[in-house]
């Protein structure tokens, strides 16, 4: 069991079995069974025990075939199942009965086909529950443990795409995994382990990520997610990777309506809300990318060494235009160029002609580059510069001998140096120079924009890792209690908040115009707000249930009547439990909005932003999983673009950010204590008053599970 | 002379000269002179007359050398100058005297070296002015007219990089041009004409763009701009390209501080404000890109046909994951997927297996693709679909025979069809399929993100072209009168605005506390604002010169004193011309900000946005060159994200957008009439009142050239 309470099975013997049985073995040319055996024998260096099962054959590929796994003398670690769809359940049943721990099911024709297929997958899960067999697939191309020389796959591409390396891949579909693998290989970086788990009837991407987090041969994890099915499991796996300092590079499909629709048409996974997904990824240090190409850029760079988050960049170029383009992107992406140390500048000055501008970018001009000594001396000086942690080398053109020479100097200069030299091979024409860089481990990236973006992600991961709170665990309660939801009245919700230590002023609840006038007279304030009290009405303004700026007892009487009439136009008058008379807060204050809701995948998420156009038009909000800590709550406040307003930019009023942060944490603690019951809590507005004056929840809505009354 | 009043010389004889003289001819192996002659003879099919000049030689490359261009019997169209830097001015002088119309100067060592070099370039311009010679360069690799088989270049790469084609390129530096050219060639699209004009002592990128706008062999123009030196010239060239329906794809260097610094270190061009540049590009239909790779994607797509702006997209795929990824990006970029016509669906249904989901994306699965007939029938049905104008085909992997077959079917299906089939070759491993697509003219793009972005730019250009106002011309007065600037007092500025038809209420100017009290008593409003009147003070609030919400005569007296004392703390009391007493406008109104300022490159630019956080934190503004038209002013208002607030989203108050638009046009007309004098005009706030109630300029600042008083 994992620290988070999520159980992860040890997958060592799935990934590197001591023995394998192929169920559905065949030697019919080009059949799935035959190709599988070929991959396991001819193209694998694996030395384990291989047995074959096929009731209709005596032998396959020159080896004996048994009628059933029940006839096996010993229990293999893995059964590879490639029988016809209608026989899969029986085969799995037999595997389970025989005590086989893992089955890899190639066969398709299940969940991806619709309802009937889903039902068969449910049967597979019953076998898992009953026998302890764990299922990988169905509808998958297999599992390639390339670092161990083992291809459990029917794909004819296995024989080509097997370069060992530090990257581990976990995908559902096959194409998006192999695409990554081919591109990384073309840049000289191998994918040592590839899980392509298809429909995920049982085991899922999170299980594979968790395995790779602990696997010694994997340094970077790449995953494509069509949807996260089990949020707490994914979060536990991601936290394990973080503990091991292994970045997860993730591509999420289904961020737009078109994407979600297309994903749904071929997998069973639910594509959750893109914003929540991205927020959770950010919080867990998962590096989200937009494209497979970007994933290759980022993963191959991260594979070269763990970033610190404090990297500064030098640009080394032999074409002024490409140097300027690269510097430009560095500035646009908010990264920092390094200031070269005086000793570095001295070294450059010694070998460069007098007219060459000294500094960063290091522009050695095309002429100079033709001299191997100068080229080597300058790139060596740059990579050894103590103020530089990444060297970007934009190469605009394939230029025959010149780019070849440059490549040789770069590869030589990289030896023994920790600072990565990252070539940007901008031309679609590849040449000998490109080949040398690939061979030399420099993993060239294709365009300036992509290269700088990859560095940004690299540095960002380093910064996250350096700042992460190792003790923090997400609450992880996505499952709501079944049944209807109940909303509380504002007054009731505010009383709960008060008990939780949140300043939520409640006025007087009145039931008649006369009581309203009395209440006004007894208020210390000479300006009050009046609001309908009703558990049935969450949007009080929409039904005319709010009257503001009341400044006399007679106005209070009139306001009471107005509220009564307005609300009665929308609801039966009996829903009106009363009218709240509250003193209005003196300006200045800033109106913030805090919402906590239960996400059905990841559990409770807190959303913070300032009210008005900031939220409505600019969607300027920050999000965090519960529980918040003082540090994460402060970060939430500071990362909205509106934080300038709170801290008082340009000499304006500074507001009580400390009280705001404390309130966010108290709200979080309150929801954590009642996580099973609370579905949604929104304070809108939360007035943030000037420094030292605290905050005040001016309205509150709380929705909870309605099986019984709210308990606390 | 061009319609805009900008003079463009006819460059036909520079681009395709009837005769060329090489000044500095040589046959020293690998010298610039020798390589130039080789490119002109061995590697060019050009049939014009070639003569050579070199005072130190009798012959070069087996041809006679004359001592000077003055000795030439006839006048060549172009002199290619490759003499040493110290002899360039003399050579150009002789070219001018001999009446040669164009000189291409390869020699470097001028403006890029600093001050002394700039001075020599000024001498070159004197020769231009005196003799009519036009200079291309210096410090340039030459001019390649590949469509005409003519390389006026010393570059050894010319012999390799010469694929004729519909793209024309105009750059300053060489690397960023050749990078584009190599990549476009690798995708099967040739660059037929490449201007690489180096330091641009005389002719500049705008001249080359203007030439290409009218050149029959060029359909798409690509340019890299380190800075726009002459804004009106650039705008005139861009408008000419628009008239011809030829897109300009532009990459601007120097958008960040790092980029601007790096650009400045190797060219003499001024990198203007990135925001203004981008706004001008958008308004002129120039397609701005971020990266050379993006430029290749966009230009090669635009070269396949002019977009209408109404393109809808079909995705054709054989891997569900890549189809979903592509659909996702289409949604994220705000593009539209096509709804396949019933007849198309019928065709697909006939050949696809029953389980294949019918619709867009067209997912034919990998198995199906192995059947050439089905593959061809499905891609043909997709490209012929009447509701589809672009077909994207994501190909996640190089897959040997499968991708080869796919390529064959795509190339065949494209024949005779206008709708472009755009392959997305996602793998870094290229194969036979890729080669066939390149050969077949399908110009594959490398990644899903890039491909969808290219389609977005393509469609965006079509939309711009369809909506452009052919009669509109920019004002184009970037040059301010020399000398100091003078600011007008608010009262004076408002009076000018009133005369221009803008509602700018001016109250009463008072000079004592007693007068203030009197003025208050005579106001119709019982709430007034008081503001210091002074031409010396533009930021009245910063010096305590504004008092709001005054509701009694005695408050007015006190406010007068407060303003006097506050302002006196910052300025000598004599700068106070008086205090303005103005009625305060009743709520509700929306505070807009309108600014017009003279940009030193492009001339007067109008900036519009809503006040408060929208401008300060979110930079939510729109910009247009003057003059505004009713349509462009309305577009300005509608394209800010805050426009929802003005039109009254979700049943809230709608404000007077018509009056706002009318006011923007009147302000534009006013500034156009006085463009020589007006440097800056800002109305902040411009109150936009509810529909039918108009707008009111509540404050105004006008800065003009101060040689004399403002005339109107």
Note the main attributes of this structure.
712 residues, alpha/beta, flat, homodimer
Write the layout of secondary structure elements.
The structure is a homodimer of 712-residue chains.
Chain A (H helix, E strand, L loop, with lengths): L11 H4 L3 E5 L8 H10 L7 E5 L5 E2 L2 E4 L11 E4 L3 H14 L3 E4 L9 H17 L2 E3 L5 E4 L4 E4 L13 E5 L3 H12 L4 E6 L8 H10 L5 E6 L5 H13 L4 E5 L4 H10 L7 H11 L2 E3 L2 H11 L10 E5 L2 H13 L9 H10 L10 E2 L1 H5 L2 H12 L6 E6 L5 H14 L6 E5 L6 H8 L8 H20 L17 E3 L2 H10 L8 E3 L2 H10 L5 E6 L12 E5 L2 H16 L9 E6 L6 E10 L3 E8 L2 H4 L4 E5 L4 H10 L3 H5 L9 H17 L4 E11 L6 E3 L3 E5 L7
Parallel strand pairs in A: 1-2, 1-5, 2-4, 5-6, 6-7, 10-11, 10-12, 12-13, 13-14, 15-16, 15-17, 17-18
Antiparallel strand pairs in A: 3-4, 8-9, 8-11, 19-29, 20-23, 21-22, 21-23, 24-25, 24-27, 25-26, 27-28, 27-29
Helix pairs in contact in A: 3-4, 5-10, 6-7, 10-17, 11-17, 12-14, 14-15, 15-16, 19-20, 22-24
Question: How is this structure best described in words?
Answer:
Two copies of one chain form a homodimer. Chain A is α/β, with parallel strands linked by helices. Helix content of chain A is 37%, strand content 20%. The first copy, chain A, is built from 24 helices and 29 strands. In chain A, the strands form five sheets. Chain A has a seven-stranded mixed β-sheet with strand order 3-4-2-1-5-6-7, sandwiched between helices. A seven-stranded mixed β-sheet of chain A has the order 9-8-11-10-12-13-14, with helices on both faces. In chain A, strand 12 (220-225), helix 7 (231-243) and strand 13 form a beta-alpha-beta unit. The interface between A and B is large, with 87 and 87 residues.
